[in-house]
Amino acid sequence: MKYLGDNYDIYASSRELLFPHHENVNAIAAAVTGKPLARYWIHCDRILVEGKKVDENDHGVTLDDLARMGYSGRVIRYWLFSTHYRKPIAFAPDRLDNARRSLERLARCIDTLQRIRAGRPYPELDQLLYDIKHGFVSAMDDDLNISAAMAALFNMVKKINILAAGKQIDPQGASRILDTFRRIDAVLGFLDFGPSVVDPAIQDLIQARERARRKKDWERADKLREQLRARGILVRDQTTIQPIGH
User: Fold this and answer.
1) Do 98 and 149 fall into the same domain?
2) How far separated are the first and last CA of the chain, in Å rounded?
3) CATH number, position 154
4) Is-contact 163 156, C-beta < 8 A?
């Protein structure tokens, strides 16, 4: 109460604390202030490792462990977002790999939009923008249904890719679509609209890969490509380098 007042909007915690802890907290708050402690209570489920809760597992995995395994913060965040908050989420490297591939798909769409320099204005752009926002917002309004929200987003990405390939989006339209994605990312926090890479270590890997490609050392080039990918960098040959996560 000292820091948050008598009553606040959202109390988030584990579903295992619903009874008796949170019921007791609410009873104490009602006795002291005459009103509930929070307006909304969000009870989340656990991350499971080998079917066990992290604190009951001898092989618990930390964020530092995931970083050492080559998963960026964006990939980890996407993976955590991929399951509804009231359902348990199982840890497995293949699930994080799937998250990485999904992020790459989103990154390619954003990169495509950022590259549009010419094209026909899309006559139904306002409807497209409405569909992007409505599909996302309506799903999130349904008890934070992130699965439905991401499905709606990827359906729009597929449509945008088709339109862009047919040169049916002009630069102004692409800019408006990107602005819509930025507003959505204010919630998601894992889309990437950033500039080119500046990390010297990454630049060294890029240059080493280019040297290997010039020598037609494809095996080394592929290994370097995977090292870049592990650092969150998607290499698109004959185009540019697109960051996919930090």
Assistant:
1) yes
2) 36
3) 1.20.120
4) no
pLDDT in tens, 130-181: 999 999 999 999 999 999 999 999 999 999 999 999 999 999 999 999 999 9
- Compute, in degrees rounded to 10, the torsion defined by CA atoms 78, 79, 83, 87: -130
What DSSP element (H or E) covers 91?
Answer: strand 89-91
Please tell me whether residue 105 adopts helix, strand or coil conformation. helix
**Residues 216 and 133 reside in one and the same domain:** no
Cα–Cα distance measured from residue 115 to residue 141, given in angstroms and rounded to the nearest whole number: 33
**Cα dihedral sign, 160-164-170-176:** positive
Rounded to the nearest 10 degrees, the angle between the axes of helix 73-81 and helix 93-115 is 110
User: Using CA atoms, how far apart are residues 81 and 240, in angstroms rounded to an integer?
Assistant: 29
Q: Does residue 59 lie in a domain region?
A: no
Instruction: Work out how many domains the chain is built from and give that number.
Output: 3
Let me know whether 182 and 155 are in one domain. yes
Q: Is 185 left (phi over 0), alpha (psi -120 to 50) or beta?
A: alpha
147 lies in which domain range? 94-188
Give the model's pLDDT for residue 63: 85
Count of residues for the chain?
246
Element housing 109 (H / E)? helix 93-115
Amino acid at 233: I
Residue with tokens 């698109």, as numbered in its chain: 236
**Is 64 within a domain?**
no
